[in-house]
Amino acid sequence: MAIVRSVVDNASERRRLSLANPATLEPLGEIEVQSAAEVRDAVGRARKAQPEWAALSFDQRARYLRRALAILLDEQDRYVDVIVSESGKPRTEARSMAIFAASDLLTYYAKRAERLLRPQKLRLHGVMRVMKRCRIVYRPLGVIGVITPWNGPFVLSINPTAQALMAGNCVVLKPSEVTPRSGALVGELFRAAGLPEGVLEIVTGDGETGAALVEAGVDKISFTGSVATGRRVGEACARQLIPCTLELGGKDPMIVCADADLDRAAGAAVAGAFFNAGHYCSGTERVYVVESVADEFTERVVERTGKLRQGVTGEFDVGAVFWQDQLEIIEHHVNDAVERGARVLAGGRRHPELKGLFYEPTVLAGVTHEMQVMRDETFGPVLPIMRVADEDEAVRMANDCRYGLGAMVWTRDTRRGFELARRIDAGGVCINDMSMVYGVLEAPFGGMKESGVGQVNGETGLKGYCFAQPILTDRFGGRQTADRYPYSAKADEGLRRFARTLYGGPLGRWLS
Ligand code: NAD
Question: Which terminus of the chain, N or C, has fewer Cβ atoms within 10 Å?
């Protein structure tokens, strides 16, 4: 969406927010901020629907995902229209980030959830190996509160929702107030797919509604958003002793080694920084390039950046900034850098001709870690490039950061790239590409340091929506425990000897 303003209307009891298209500035109507009571009602409906939903087989649940997929593919242009109207992004970005990614994850979880969540036999060790059998069953948690941000409003909403549903939970989803309609499309899609009443509830509103959801008696919160809000959500969950995953901001570094393919590295730096107008949690937020190749790399980045087209309709490459508050942060970071001595090699200002929220793709050189643009998340179309003496310095600088979401390494020597990647404090690293771990559904995705708590996606993500319950079966019908009393000196001596025999020699090691 969008440009968001509070509607001042004393006659109405409800708070409302008005929205406008960030590219055209055209009004997009209003949304109501739902109250805590309404959120509790939504959770109540989800709670009521959950036992029946959980009782369905995986295949029965998967059928709803497949139906949703078919509808999404048939109606993709309408979905793209809504997303573009709220974000001002190029249609190709809406299609790749929302339609393509959602189609992939719906297909994946519909097919794989059963296998990933089926009861698991554990091989036990020691005495238990002889006496017990253990199986783990993955039980749904119940009702999951999903709270999502504006930068990928459809995919970041449908992804946790699909995982939680396949694991047998019901979901109450609170999309961002900046992109409420793109988020609400998830509800519309599953409704059209025939999902039973109450299994997925959508609540609309801003932080007040989000905070109400956290307090509404859910069994887990899946939160994606900023560090500041994530901290508040995490504190509220800890107080209530409910689990949460926090997928938070990033300041992803890209390291360009001396042996990198400079043309490709430059292309990926440009894509990583300007894709989705830079509103990408794993966007390329800072580059460390080795001195010996810095000039050539920077020249190629500037040349590619100069060719990017901004626009409102038709064919263009970089869309509007989605939200007016983000535009202020972007301007502030660039101005702060310039005041402290950075050089603007491209962009560095709002687009002079486009009347919407457009900021020109910006390349900065001569940056330092004293500047905000190198320390805090900019989340906009800004690419600061810093020269470093060698790869060791690059890793040091990459790790000199409170965030740790993703990172990129560019080198022709992939073995060395792997070794460098292991030294970077980041939730996931891509060698010779822009950050795209989120799109690899099998890989656990999450942040180190302030970038988050917990990991999502794939087996880890699905199991995160479950309680792993071990069920032990005694192989001897429980006789040894049933006959435990009375204690005696003889039994104690027997245990002493048994401990020595078992752990004092090879037998214990063999059984372990
Ligand atoms: P935000 O924290 O302002 O808002 C996120 C959501 O939380 C919104 O729905 C908002 O209404 C809600 N909210 C606000 N206050 C709340 C409260 N007190 N309790 C509960 N909910 C509340 O974040 P944003 O500006 O929408 O999103 C941008 C941020 O999200 C960036 O930092 C970006 O890096 C991050 N992000 C992270 C990932 C990831 O996977 N790690 C992915 C996308 C975006």
Answer: C
Residues with CB under 6 A from ligand 1: 147-152, 156, 174, 176-177, 206-207, 210-211, 214, 224-226, 229, 232-233, 247-250, 281, 377, 379, 405, 447, 452
**Domain 253-444 is classified in which CATH homologous superfamily?**
Aldehyde Dehydrogenase; Chain A, domain 2 (3.40.309.10)
Report the pLDDT value the prediction gives residue 1, as an integer from 0 to 100. 43
The pTM of the whole model exceeds 0.85? yes
For the chain, residues classed under CATH 3.40.309.10 are 253-444
Q: Are 435 and 416 in contact (CB under 8 A)?
A: no
| Closest to 381 in 3D by CA, of 334, 341, 426 | 334
**354 phi/psi in degrees, rounded to 5:** -85, 130
SS3 377: coil
Query: Looking at the domain that runs over 31-248+458-467, which CATH code has it been given?
Result: 3.40.605.10
Please give the sequence-ordered ranges of beta strands (E in DSSP) within 252-381, or none if there are none: 253-256, 286-290, 343-346, 362-365
| 296 part of the active site | no
Centre of ligand 1 from the C-alpha of residue 248, in Å: 7
Tell how far the Cα of 262 is from the centroid of ligand 1, in angstroms.
34
Backbone angles phi, psi at 91, to 5 degrees: -60, -35
Torsion angle of C-alpha atoms 397, 399, 401, 404, degrees rounded to 10: 140
Atom index in ligand 1 nearest the CA of residue 281 equals 34
The yes-or-no answer on residue 237 being catalytic is no
By C-alpha distance, which of 389, 390, 350, 371 is closest to 286? 371
Instruction: State residue 4's pLDDT score.
Output: 78
Q: What stretch(es) of the chain map to CATH 3.40.605.10?
A: 31-248+458-467
Residue 480 has a pLDDT of 86
86, 247, 360, 391: which one is catalytic?
A: 247
Give residue 2's pLDDT. 66
